[in-house]
Write a structure and sequence with these properties.
Blueprint: H1 3-26, E1 31-32, H2 33-42, H3 49-61, E2 65-70, E3 77-82, H4 84-105
Antiparallel strand pairs: 1-3, 2-3
Helix pairs in contact: 1-4
């Protein structure tokens, strides 16, 4: 495995948890899957549909998201929104993310 492939694998692992947090925070305003994919990408969280849709279903099953179908347009879309439990989880994850970033900043760095 090349150094680049190893880095990509570690970056993917590092980002995995941040996608959950980003979704919970972005979905404080209702959104649908494809629109959320674009928002995530625009904000520095590149994600693919094969990752996002199972994540949305899991968060909904856990009670962190609610959903409803919008059938007003020609193509029905399932809109998701962060629930009260999801907002509490997002706040806790945000606090922990900041604590981890502070801890990392305190580690020695190679010059």
């Amino acid at each position: 495995m090349s150094e680049s492939e190893i880095l990509d694998t570690h970056l993917q692992e590092l980002r995995r948890g941040t996608i959950v947090l980003a979704c919970l925070r972005l979905l404080e305003q209702p959104g649908y899957g494809y629109g959320l994919l674009e928002q995530l990408g625009d904000r520095g969280f590149p994600t693919d549909a094969n990752t996002l849709y199972p994540l949305l279903r899991r968060l909904e099953k856990q009670g962190h998201l609610t959903s409803e179908w919008n059938t007003d347009e020609a193509r029905p879309r399932k809109f998701y929104r962060t629930s009260a439990a999801g907002s509490r989880l997002a706040a806790a994850l945000t606090d922990e993310f900041h604590a981890i970033a502070t801890a990392i900043d305190s580690l020695p760095q190679e010059d």
